[in-house]
Batch of 2 targets.
Target 1
Amino acid sequence: MIRVIHRKESTQPTTSLPRSPSLNPAAWREGPKWRRGLGLPLLASLSAFALSYRGLGFDIWDTVAISLVIFGGMGVARVIYVNDVYRRAAERRASDVAELYRSTLRCLAAAIDARDAHTRDHVRLVEFVATELAAEMGLSSEETEGIRTAALLLDVGTLGVPENILLQSGRPSAEEFAAIHNHPVLGAEILEEVPFPWPVQRFIRSHHERWDGTGYPDRLQGEEIPLGARILAVADVYGALVSNRSFRRGWPHEQALAHIRRGAGSHFDPEVVKVFLRIAYRIPRAGLSRSIRDSERAATTIARATQEFVWLWDISQSANSTLDLHETLQTVARKVAEHMDCDACAIFLKDSDGVGLTCQAEYPGEPVILRGAKVTVGDPGTGQVARDGRPAIIRPGRDSVRTGDGTPSQVPYEWAAISPLGAGSASLGTINLYRSGRDFSIEELDLLNSLARHAAVPLANASLYEAARQGAERDALTGLHNVRYLCNRVEQEFARSCRTGRPFSIIAVDLDNFKSVNDTLGHQAGDALLRDVSQMLASAVRDYDSVVRYGGDEFVIVLSEASEDDARETIVRLDRLMTDYASRLPGLAAMGFGASFGAATFPRDGADMKALLEVADARMYNSKRSTRAGRRAA
């Protein structure tokens, strides 16, 4: 007996079938019906019986035979249908696995490329170009997939190249070039244990070989280079040319094509170049779409971390190249301004009393806006950041910056980001960024704070060195430079004058009757007088001139880029100041207190410091003798 079994309908997938929407009973109801599976053979059997009764000669055995044939045919059809469903499900599953595999590789490649914010789309572009090239050259889908995989992992070897080499703006040294040239070998070694079904490792190792045999690492030539590597070489160079770098803007599409065209037969396989130029119009001009948002956020985080590392390294290397405080300050201000998106950068350092701050560096420095400006520690804005050690974003109008004479300073920017140089009360001062148009973000403030923490180390070292140097080159009583400084300064002026062809002058100063002051009023009064005279001399010359206490009551003034006439005018001004000073203190005038001056100019009066000092001293003593003679005559 033939039994007709009605299969129970259910929305749940059966355990005997793959868990795929196309294989559940609900989907099957859209096609052949399980409950109709035996209906056709049964109808055929009934029809045979009916025909036999209509006198067509069928007997019962004929009817059974017809039923079995029809039933068996439908069973085979059902098996064929099920096998086809399984085959299509397996193909879909294989396609899904392949896409998952490619997406994973893209994410990993994007993470590697994200170290450089300028090249984060490079790997996608190289993958696109290499895949299009392989397909256009008639390679099989398997070969094309191997080239696509190698394109995604092309730069894995750069993990072994330090960021400071990979992302530097200048030309690498020979040792740095060697580290860069090793990345194809390192990439192949990293992937050595991965059982790719394609020669991915060979493609990666050889993608920097050149058609003429001058490439690296193995100096392969012509068709010795695997075809996949030759394809990748064109795709990689094109991607590098059109991408922005830390040291240049990306090239236009047509300029990159012209470069690759010129390299055919020397750098590149000419046949690959020919195909590349044929499919170049397919390359997206506006960049490839970004479909994996989570990986993009991760890439942004990696790029920011790498960028911060490189900036810190750049600032540290530059700032640690010198111990001169002024040069270190200018270097830090310039580097921070170059790396951060701002209109200006200023560095305020605490004064020796710890109460105030003074702007010691500004970038750009022309025109001068803030250099020399003053702030009191604890005042709103810069002063508060210096006191509390917490970074802040403010409007400069709320800052308490004053000019050197104490009047409020008008800072011509809309926003300021301020970070302490160090921690709490131990901070050296602040780094201030200024910008107009839009305010600073919290991320930018965090980055500035990180840069400031690292910049504080070379600045602290330079400050300590400056204090030690000033202790060695400064007179303890007057605060003026001493003879040790004088020798270095005159040497600098000699070099500057020889380079520019402009003269410089020195003035010898000797106080008249200073011994009488000490003998009459005491040494404390004499010391106070020396301090007053030192301040007068320093205030009467330019900022870039130098006043030196040469010994006892003798001084030497170095006038940078000053002619003989300039020196004479300075002497007239100094003599007037000294006369006015003595006239305000009647006791000094009665003692005959005053000053004598003598000048010498390079190169007219001497070719070295000794000669210039001798000429200046001689003229100063001639002036002193003339003054004494005039007093005796009076």
Target 2
Amino acid sequence: MPRQTLVVPGLLALASALAAEDAAPPSVTPPTTQPVETLVVEGAAEDAFAVGHRGSAAKFDLPEQQEPQARTTLPRELLDVRGAWTLREALRSAPGVTMAAGEGGRTGDSLSIRGFAANSDLYLDGLKDNGQYFRDTFATDRVEVLRGAAGVLFGRGSTGGVVNTVTRKPTDQWTGDAALTAGAYDLQRVTAGIGGPLVDDTLGARLDAVAQDSGSFRDEQHLQRFGIAPGVSWAAGERTTILLQGLHQQDDGTMDYGVPMYAGRPADVPVETYYGFKDDSFQSYDVNQATLTIEHQLDSGLTLRNATRYGDYQRSYRTETLGAVNYITNTVSRAQALRDNVQRNLINQSEAAWKGQVGGREGSLLLGLELSREHYEYRSKNSTGVTGVAVFDPQSADSVGAGRADSLDGTLDARNETTAQTVAGYALGSLDLVPTLKAVLGLRVDCFSADYSSGPTVSPVVTEFSRSDTMVSPRTGLVWTPVPELSTYASWSRAFNPSAETYSLSTATSDLEPEQTDNYEIGAKATLLDEALTLGAAVFRLDKSKARTVDPTNTALQVLDGQQRTDGIELEAAGTIGRWSVQAGVAFMDAEVLASNNTTTTWDGVTVQVEGKRPINAPRSSGSLWTSYDLGQGFVIGTGFYAVSSRFTDQANSTVVPGYIRFDATLGWQGETWSAQLNLQNLADTVHYETGSARSAYAGTPLTGQLTLGARF
């Protein structure tokens, strides 16, 4: 039987078993053990509709203070007060995370964690959400950033860590909110959310929605977005909860690659300067997801959980990329292509979680089975006759003209198709060795296979590659809690990156085993002032010891002789003390390619070795602060900053985007029903560049602001 066909029967069998058990209520008193949960946001109590696991990044019942790994939680309240409507904007408050350009032709949310690319390490309620789109936070309850190799929790990838978004869910009390925002660059945005019980403590529902129409500080840019996230929760008996959720997000906008790199730096031009054909560029995203989660509590502290997600990610776009600069004529070359890709994921995850006593000592155990099938199709056709344009005065025609790629019919320049399948089993556990010392262990085994084909394009030839890997991802850790307010830990974990991780195989990579990365970390977590303030510190080494590099005996192949390392320190603080609230974090990283056979060229054509260079998008330092103060009478004032040092954007370390600091502020008023909030970003109007590549850089927003009027009911 194909692996993907195991998903639905497994889910139906579990549902039938749970329904049968609930039909005959047990004679014993239901257990009082808490559901499998690692974080409860203050003010959000458990209720009849809550699914205990709630999609947490840590997966099993261990207090956040005793997790042997650094984690940052960004609650909904912080996102609202900062006006962080996108995942990219929210992640400014997480140390060790930096935004990246779309390496490898990827679009949508691209980022790095601890100096390693994390483009496919995005999750939604604990299930993989690796489609290429820009995530809005309209239905977000909180964002969790788990740093360090997390293969034991999430499988392939997760080298520097993962980002997990936890959605808003039905509750047993009716709540509603709506907001209307208007701002600079023709911003118009409406959000609304409502949820509560439909039938007493049995049936609950929630619906969140967003609509946005906006321009940009960049010329020729616009965005139209619509999103809706419905959810229904059914308390099917005293111990079983069934949650059905959906997500639809549709974006229509303009593809933009920013300004060209000139002599290794972003060209000295106004940040709004556009280098594309204004009538030719577009990007469209259409994302649809459905997730069914069943959770059931048994006696003896045992909880069963099964989650199934179907995700459909579609994008169509016309790229207008920037190429090499001719320093004699001061022109930059351009390329244009019409592209389309479709990705469909089917994921099923079953878990059994237990918490109780082992020989008189506290212990917990989580056993899991994950089955998934991911199918990816990509097509591309290049336009012809694309001319260059002046770097400092880019006067351009509105369209390429006769050579424009208008459709994906006929001869293509690329046609790729990949089907990837995963069967994984994992076990996570903790045990109190003595009252103050806890051991945390875990092991995950992934059987990952991929079938890749390329063509037909110009000729009818089809190139095919297949690859199967078995990856074992362990984790060990010790947590010492001398007093309830302080925990220290030491841990080691491992993650793997198979060749087909992002759906591509070639002659050079199809025979390669996965890359291997180890994370060594010591840290401390403390709560002060009756748990009003939390502090965290981590010292880590992230070591990729089997990195892909060119084979010195055959440059058409690759070998696993490379090595990349990041040593770092992270510090953070979060909490509310009286009327004062704060969220702050800083990361210092020393990253280096320790071994590589690869060579590359600098912006001016000099061939150099990659070995000894700093990895792309790995700043030496980055940090953020957001602090707010309750002035009384419903008024709140807040301010903060985000800062990052310079980052190299090519392997030769010859192109760089400069470091910058951005200051923001807010002033808000909250009444019993109505509210108003003014947000200002980049108060100093600093010219800065958020991301970059070897050929181009994308500018950050200049001084801007928006006013939001809201209501709660």
